[in-house]
């Protein structure tokens, strides 16, 4: 019945395929009892385009294996459980996000990628993410531009709207200490005023902007495809 409704909506032009899929979903397929699954199509300036697969869970000690399957049923690969980002959820409970990058298959199609999570006690859970295979161009028009010197404070970072993007996130690095010192919330504007105290007079900094096509979408997950700029370096007065 769900597929018949989808075909009806698309045939009569009431919705695009993505809109129609969203309309008929009764619950978020990215979640299973084991955790949350998502895939991103990434276009970064320092490497060929790739797939980033993510599975986050509160039950990380109980996970034995997470296998990722393509829309055509082929095995994309397994998540490397030794590579993860540790954090806490809103209730303060420890959580891990297992993240593994894969090459984009030569022959692929838009559709549902599937994560099969096998627990150490033998239980198995499935979660899905709808993926549209497309690439987003790199962000451009960044101000201050790379190699700008003696930039006055306070500073507002600006960039051109990236085609296909609806959300952005900013990352600022201290180039002397070689570390990340600030990350913004996800925003929809193409300008961001840095809080006081992030930059210091005489400092040498770099900044990047990440762009994505969506944010927390029931069909596409956190987002479907995204990109990041090369670092723009600058000094401040």
What does this structure look like?
By secondary structure, the protein is mainly beta. The chain contains 2 helices and 16 strands. Strands 1, 2, 5, 6, 9, 11, 12, 14, 15 and 16 form a 10-stranded mixed beta sheet that branches. A 4-stranded antiparallel beta sheet has the order 4-3-7-8, with no helix packed on it. Strands 10-13 form a two-stranded antiparallel ribbon. A hairpin with a 4-residue loop joins strand 11 (167-174) and strand 12 (179-183). Helix 1 packs antiparallel against helix 2. The longest helix has 10 residues, at 2-11.
Topology overview:
Layout: H1 2-11, H2 17-24, E1 36-43, E2 50-57, E3 63-69, E4 75-78, E5 84-88, E6 94-103, E7 111-119, E8 124-131, E9 148-151, E10 156-158, E11 167-174, E12 179-183, E13 191-193, E14 204-212, E15 225-228, E16 232-236
Parallel strand pairs: 1-15, 9-16
Antiparallel strand pairs: 1-2, 2-6, 3-4, 3-7, 5-6, 7-8, 10-13, 11-12, 11-14, 14-15, 14-16
Helix pairs in contact: 1-2
